[in-house]
Design goal:
The protein is an alpha/beta fold. Helix content is 35%, strand content 22%. A five-stranded mixed beta sheet has the order 10-9-11-8-12, sandwiched between helices. Strands 5-1-6 form a three-stranded parallel beta sheet, with helices on both faces. It has a three-stranded antiparallel beta sheet with strand order 2-3-4. The chain is globular and about 55 Å long. The termini are far apart.
């Protein structure tokens, strides 16, 4: 009888130990300490050359470099990063569900988005611009787009805004992807492509396009790229500190030149944390 009691008690102890181990193993840490074997999930774009792109060799782009630097400052090595595709329409939901720890994906800080998620940064000030063929000498201002074939992706609000406010007689052509717009620009089917200048520079920096295109430099809007995090996350202050370190040690400028340099991208200086340009 006594033997049965000891055996039962031992079984309870073992069960509790297994339960505790299961609960604690592999859990992500919002404090920024990686610990043994832990991972950090980061959302990026998978289809934006120069910013966030998935290739057979891995992941590349300015957003990837920024996110990797931030993760290292939070205590995570490159092999502890789990990259997740963050499409524009899914970003807030991914953060709210906890699918990712943070998102660096050409994520402009806006009042509407700030109602749902928090932002660290900004870490890049971009502008709406146009991409032109390198030999184009006719388009020198937004007004010169009147009567020209202007391309952007289907559903783009920036293209609609440009047409409504600056070039009402532009012939707006919508393609399913920016890559399709690039092909049209190269063939002469369209005369200008519009979106954020950073995105345009990323496409123009691809090896097959080097020297074939140029940015208009029109700076039609301000796009303050921030790092999206879940509302109330303790990561905000730590990510802001990491971004400040990236600028001060020269890594930020090096990442800009590496990813946008071939397009002769005249980037703005690194923005101050919390300085959101309207």
């Amino acid at each position: 009888m006594k033997l049965r009691k000891v055996t039962a008690a031992s079984a309870v102890v073992v069960a509790l130990a297994v339960s505790v181990t299961a609960c604690g193993g592999g859990k992500k840490n919002d404090s920024g300490s990686s610990g043994g074997g832990k991972k950090i999930a980061i959302g990026i774009k998978f289809d934006q050359p120069g910013l966030g792109q998935k290739t057979p060799q891995g992941y590349s782009g300015f957003d990837v470099d920024v996110a990797t630097y931030v993760a290292k400052k939070l205590g995570y090595s490159a092999d502890q990063i789990e990259w997740k595709e963050s499409k524009s329409a899914d970003r807030e939901t991914m953060l709210q569900r906890g699918d990712v720890d943070f998102i660096a994906a050409t994520y402009s800080i806006t009042p509407k988005r700030q109602e749902k998620v928090d932002f660290a940064g900004p870490y890049l000030l971009a502008h709406q611009d146009v991409l032109l063929r390198a030999d184009d000498t006719k388009i020198k201002s937004p007004a010169d787009l009147n009567g020209k074939n202007l391309c952007s992706v289907t559903g783009s609000t920036s293209a609609q805004s440009l047409k409504a406010k600056l070039a009402p007689k532009a012939n707006l052509q919508t393609y399913p992807t920016y890559s399709a717009c690039m092909s049209g620009l190269q063939s002469g089917a369209i005369e200008a492509l519009t979106t954020d200048d950073s995105i345009l520079a990323g496409y123009a920096s691809q090896a097959q396009f080097k020297g074939k295109f140029k940015l208009g430099g029109f700076k039609m809007t301000n796009e303050n790229y921030g790092i999206g995090i879940k509302k109330g996350s303790a990561l905000k202050a730590k990510i802001n500190k990491a971004l400040e370190d990236m600028v001060s040690d020269g890594s930020w400028e090096a990442a800009v030149k590496k990813n946008f340099g071939p397009a002769d991208y005249k980037n703005e200086p690194a923005p101050k944390i919390g300085d959101i340009k309207s």
